Amino acid sequence: MTSTDAPAIHAGGKSLASYLEIWRAAHPGRESLAGVVTAVAEAGAAIAHIILRGPLMGAMGVEIGQANVDGDKQRRLDMLADGAMVSALRRSSTAYYASEEEESILTLHAGGELAVAVDPLDGSSNIDANISIGTIFSVFPASPAGATASFFRPGSEQLAAGYIIYGPHTALLFTLGEGVAHFVLDPESNEFRLIAEGLRIQPSTREYAINASNYRHWTPPIRTFMDDCVAGAGGPRGKDFNMRWVASLVAETHRIFMRGGVFLYPGDQRPGYEHGRLRLLYEANPIALLVEQAGGAATDGYGRILDRTASALHQRTALIFGSSEKVARITSYFTDSTFERARSPLFGERGLFHA
Predict the structure, then answer these.
(1) Is 123 within 8 Å of 96 (Cβ atoms)?
(2) What does the pLDDT read at residue 70?
(3) Confidence bin at 59 (pLDDT 50/70/90)
(4) In Å, how far are 4, 79, 106, 264, 302 from 210, measured between CA atoms?
(5) Where do the domains of the chain lie, and which CATH numbers do they carry?
(6) Which of 183, 195, 218, 335 has the fewest CB atoms below 10 angstroms from its CB?
């Protein structure tokens, strides 16, 4: 159970269909959004079935000899997941579809009401290692001005967002702008059933997730934060911390929802990494909306993710999110001039905070 300011409500296994019907009936004009969430869930259930069979389906993690528009090698399961999502969303009121696996925005229904951005298979490099992977989705209203205008707008204008995690069980977490609901796929009925709603992220934590192998490339604010955490109880923070790193954004996010923590994928000094590597439109935006709906925070180090407007379909961004107190602390490393640098026996440098 998630640690909360107000405990999450465990709701006895209500089906996703029943949940969405109650939500849809509460106000007019909700049919299309409920239909999109239903379609995403149907695609997720199909993807989960493929993943469940693992190597029985062949080498799903094998690179298929081509790269997506960002140069990342596509794997067989990437393309199967993308196809499942497109097929499902064609049965909804989706006008425009943006995907990590597509070079441009697809028009599914010219008169549709919604625009859906998807990372069909986050963490695909972990497929053959049997590590949790997932699907991330974001929903905007379709703009009368067309496909580009539908997506190139502040992340705060999202109508819904969520992710599906394919792990020991398949879970769906999403928000319709009224808090975060947690569903689990029942393998017997193939239905998503409600586990809890009103999830809240633990406000403070001693756990963080970052790829420490990139330490030498980080900018001073991130090095300072990490040095102070690694120094533990004897350092300026005065307490010990634990580090986690799965290299799957959905897996990292789910852990934070279940027990708190903070995730960092900053920009760094390598060519092509200056602005981060995660995609603003279909990774950072939906995760940021979910996190804020659960009382957490999401930033690029300098400002709120949801205040940013994408200017390119596959635009990259730095992303730091999770427990609100920790995110605020990390932001201060970027903005507070009282941080200084000094030599450290651990990583060669460390940060000292002067009150």
Answers:
(1) no
(2) 58
(3) low
(4) 24, 28, 34, 5, 18
(5) 9-197 (3.30.540.10), 207-353 (3.40.190.80)
(6) 335
Alpha carbons 36 and 21: distance in angstroms, whole number: 13
> If we measure between CA atoms, which residue out of 243, 247, 212 comes closest to residue 127?
247
Burial class (CB in 10 A: 0-12, 13-18, 19+), 259: middle
In angstroms, rounded to a whole number, what is the distance separating the alpha carbons of residues 79 and 85?
10
Residue 63 contacts residue 75 (beta carbons within 8 Å)? yes
What count of other Cβ atoms lies within 10 Å of the Cβ of residue 143?
17
Question: pLDDT digits over 214-257, tens only?
Answer: 999 999 999 999 999 999 999 998 999 999 999 999 999 999 99
Tokens 């528009």 label which residue? 69
Residue given tokens 């403070």 in the structure block: 204
Q: Cβ–Cβ contacts within 10 Å for residue 122, how many?
A: 30
